[in-house]
Each structure stands twice: as C-alpha cells, then as structure tokens.
Design brief:
Layout (H helix, E strand, L loop, with lengths): L5 E6 L2 E8 L5 H11 L14 E8 L12 E4 L8 E7 L6
Antiparallel strand pairs: 1-2, 2-5, 3-4, 3-5
C-alpha cells in the first residue's frame, strides 16, 4: 500500500486541496480530520457534501510542467498504473 496518507495539494491549477488516501481513511474519518486540522471560525462548516472522490498516483517526474525537482503525487485517471482513490476537499474556498 502507498506511503501516502494525507496532505495538502498546491501547484499547477490546484490550490489548497486537502487530500487523504481513501483506503486508509473513511469519508467520515476524513471529515473529522478536516474539522480538526482547519479552524474555520465564522466560516461555513465543512460537510460530507464538500468531500469529493478522485484518484492520485506518484509521478517520478512531475507531470503537467509542475516545478518539482523530485517526484510528486498528483491527480490522475483511475485507470493509470499506480493510481489509488482519495478523498478531497477544497479548503481554499472556505477562506474566500
């Protein structure tokens, strides 16, 4: 299983998305983690409707012209080699 657990995605056309491995966290556990990790005083509370499913894989060479010296995790198609499901929430939208 992947070393990926939970992290922020920033770069390219993605800004401020919190992402968790869907086989290591249930959707409910991810929601509770979001509420714990992000203090959103006076801002709409994160709900199950805000959490989306996507797929991620590790790229040895950063895709899409991303400026990373080493490899990185990035979104991908579900059928790509090494892909796995993730839960995502766009944290930046809560701060706008």
């Amino acid at each position: 299983m992947s070393n990926f657990d939970i992290m922020m995605f920033n770069g390219g056309n993605v800004h401020g998305e919190y992402v968790a491995h869907a086989k290591k966290f249930t959707k409910e556990e991810f929601l509770e983690r979001c509420k714990h990790d992000f203090y959103l005083d006076g801002v709409k509370e994160i709900t199950m409707d805000d959490i989306k499913e996507n797929h991620v894989r590790y790229y040895v060479k950063a895709p899409y012209g991303l400026d990373f010296d080493d490899g990185c995790y990035s979104y991908c198609r579900p059928d790509e080699k090494g892909s796995f499901p993730v839960w995502t929430v766009d944290i930046d939208r809560f701060y706008q």
